[in-house]
Automatic annotation (TrEMBL):
Keywords attached to this entry: Disulfide bond, Immunoglobulin domain, Signal
GO biological process: homophilic cell adhesion via plasma membrane adhesion molecules; synapse organization
Gene label: Ttn_0
GO cellular component: axon; neuronal cell body; plasma membrane
Species of provenance: Nephila pilipes
SUPFAM superfamilies linked to this entry: Immunoglobulin
GO MF entry, a single one: axon guidance receptor activity
UniProt key word Lipid metabolism: no
Protein name as it appears in the record: Titin
Entry annotated with the keyword Disulfide bond: yes
InterPro entries from the UniProt entry: Cell_Adh-Cytoskel_Orgn, Ig-like_dom, Ig-like_dom_sf, Ig-like_fold, Ig_I-set, Ig_sub, Ig_sub2
Extent of the signal sequence: 1-19
Length: 344
């Protein structure tokens, strides 16, 4: 009963941490709040968890989005689909949503695009007022922008707030305004980001650079900055990545079956119910490390569990067995006594 309950807790924990197993999870995306008529808008729909292949579909205000008039949707890699509107105008305003589906289920995320000069208010008088004000603003900003004409402007990007160790994440650094060619560079906490282990940086097109981290861990935490520069100047945007801290392991209590006769098989599960992967499992008997031998074997059955099996118990099997679990944050251990019937 206790084991059942504990298995249920463990299962719930994994489900809660990683989402229902294999069902996609999408990184939220946002359009820049500084989009003026004629600027370029682009967002990416990036899956951070789940099993490929994924089928991506985009819609605008509930209608399937068609490749048309400067709107293009492309698959960047197995995990990412990008939407580009090469020049936004009043018709571009709307609620854009991306759906990523696989055999297990789907996730959907949406973002509003509001072109600065054309907030579609529904109210005619307000609209007129907006248009007038915006016309003035456009004239004023046109005057201003003569000065910084062609200097790149980047849209904002964000990392998912619920990233857990082992998840995938990717963000898009997209130029919304300015003259190509651009040079993109990424840094983390002020240091140039080098492509290493799980980090990759790729330019999607002349206007966009993608940063992907295939498996985040505690080392991934930091302030990521993208800089886009051209001959006229540069712009920078930053976002914080923070992997959820789950802490040191907690091991579930376990017990040997009470009535073991000589020759019977004994097995126990050492299950972690809390903590950050990866875990290292170690088995001890009366305080001494156990080695795989003489009918004793132990193996990790998944990231969170190790099984100890004694194929045929005898007098030598009696003892106090400990499972010790260690991760980067600390360790925990549980013990159980094995006593074979009639032998002491
Ligand atoms: C945008 O669309 C999504 C999905 O269709 C919906 O959940 C969300 O409420 C919409 N947002 C707004 C502001 O209309
Ligand atoms: C991240 O880095 C940028 C650029 O160096 C800086 O302007 C910003 O304040 C930093 N953000 C945080 C939260 O440290
Ligand atoms: C078994 O070993 C653990 C760890 O060394 C210890 O804390 C525990 O008291 C021992 N149990 C018995 C019954 O000796």
């Amino acid at each position: 009963m206790a084991l059942l309950w504990n298995s249920a807790v463990l299962f719930l924990y994994i489900v809660k941490t990683l989402g229902e197993s294999g069902v996609p999870k999408i990184n939220p995306f946002h359009f820049s709040g500084e989009l003026d008529v004629g600027m370029r808008a682009s967002v990416q729909c990036a899956v951070i968890y789940g099993d490929p292949p994924f089928e991506f579909s985009w819609s605008k205000d509930g209608h399937k989005l068609m490749d048309a008039r400067g709107v293009s949707v492309r698959t960047f890699d197995d995990f990412t689909s990008t939407l580009v509107i090469s020049k936004v105008d009043a018709d571009s305003n709307g609620n854009y949503s991306c759906k990523a589906a696989n055999s297990k289920g789907f996730d959907e995320k949406a973002a509003l695009l509001l072109v600065k000069a054309f907030f579609n208010n529904g109210n005619c008088i307000l609209k007129m007022a907006f248009l007038t004000i915006n016309l003035v603003l456009i004239l004023v900003s046109a005057k201003f922008s003569l000065a910084d004409e062609g200097i790149p402007k980047i849209g904002p990007f964000y990392f998912h707030g619920d990233l857990v160790v082992g998840m995938r994440t990717s963000v898009l650094c997209a130029v919304i305004f300015g003259d190509p060619p651009f040079e993109f560079s990424w840094s983390k906490d002020g240091h140039k980001l080098s492509e290493a282990r799980s980090i990759s940086v790729k330019n999607i097109d002349d206007f966009t650079s993608n940063l992907a981290i295939s498996k985040v861990d505690a080392d991934s935490n930091g302030n990521y900055t993208c800089r886009a520069s051209n001959s006229k100047g540069f712009d920078e945007k930053s976002a914080l990545l923070s992997v959820k801290e789950l802490g040191a392991p907690k091991v579930n209590p376990f017990n040997f079956f009470g009535e073991l006769d000589v020759g019977m098989r004994a097995s126990v599960h050492c299950a972690v119910i809390y903590g950050d992967i990866p875990f290292e499992f170690m088995w001890l008997k009366d305080g001494q490390p156990l080695a795989d031998s003489r009918g004793i074997s132990f193996r990790k059955t998944d990231e969170y569990t190790s099984n100890l099996v004694i194929s045929k118990v005898d007098a030598d099997s009696n003892g106090n067995y400990t499972c010790r679990v260690t991760n980067l944050k600390g360790s925990d251990e549980r013990s159980a006594v094995l006593s074979v019937k009639g032998i002491s």
